[in-house]
Amino acid sequence: MTFVVGLTGNIGSGKSTVAQRFAALGATVIDADILARQAVEAGTPALKRIAARWGTSVLAPDGLLDRAALRRRVFHDQTELEELNRIVHPAVNQLRTDQIAAASARGDRVVICDIPLLFERRLADEFDRIVLVDASRPVRLERLVHERGLQETEALDMITAQMPAELKRARADFVIENSGSLASLDARVAEVWADLSREASELAHSLTA
């Protein structure tokens, strides 16, 4: 049986870096951002619903989704954003379910699902364990400004808009601190991976005993 882990973290925490480290250690990683792009590819029901809802102005000349145009239409309107989420998230969830099933059929021991809004979307109960990547607010702000090129006010708005990390820490099974060096990050990821691998082995053993 596949051991399914939810990996999450607020913007600027370095969650994607941790996901890459887990993949290098042998995890099967399913990235929600990739699934979100696949969910609205040409010809998908989700893309057709988006075009019906917001018109062809959110489509590029080649018929694909113009993400920037859609973002301008929905980002500052909570009602519109929720409508978009109602269209996209079920498709993303189905793609994730399909990929987990495929990983299980292959015999993959540990699957890690990289999901930025895991808690916000109330997905916590779907996973055997939850890993939270966190960094201090000043560190996350610096990363958004210096690494992603955002204006400080824009970066602060994005940080403030998310569920506070403190609430997520209380619900996570493992917390990976990512405010220090890459060496300390690698050490902590390896430590968590060892624990997850052990639990996955114990689960597999209990099912075959």
Q: Name the CATH architecture.
A: 3-Layer(aba) Sandwich
How are strands sequenced across the largest beta sheet?
2-3-1-4-5
What is the CATH class designation? Alpha Beta
Quote the beta fraction.
5-15%
Rg measurement, Å: 18 Å
| Unreliable sequence segments | none
User: What is the average of the pLDDT values?
Assistant: 92
Strands, total number: 5
The CATH topology: Rossmann fold
Helical content (DSSP H or I, runs of 4+): 55-70%
Element pattern in H and E: EHEHHHHEEHHHEH
Describe the structure.
This protein is α/β, with parallel strands linked by helices and 209 residues long. Helices cover 57% and strands 12% of the residues. It has helices at residues 15-25, 32-39, 45-54, 67-74, 78-106, 137-146, 152-161, 165-171, 182-208, and strands at residues 3-8, 28-31, 110-114, 129-134, 174-177. The longest helix has 29 residues, at 78-106. The model has no long low-confidence stretch (mean pLDDT 92). It has one domain: 3-Layer(aba) Sandwich (Rossmann fold), CATH 3.40.50.300. It is globular. It is built from nine helices and five strands; from the N terminus they run βαβααααββαααβα. A five-stranded parallel sheet has the order 2-3-1-4-5, with helices on both faces. α6 crosses α7.
Characteristic terms for this protein:
Rossmann fold, globular, about 210 residues, alpha/beta, single chain
In a nutshell, what does this entry contain?
This protein is an alpha/beta fold and 209 residues long. It has helices at residues 15-25, 32-39, 45-54, 67-74, 78-106, 137-146, 152-161, 165-171, 182-208, and strands at 3-8, 28-31, 110-114, 129-134, 174-177.
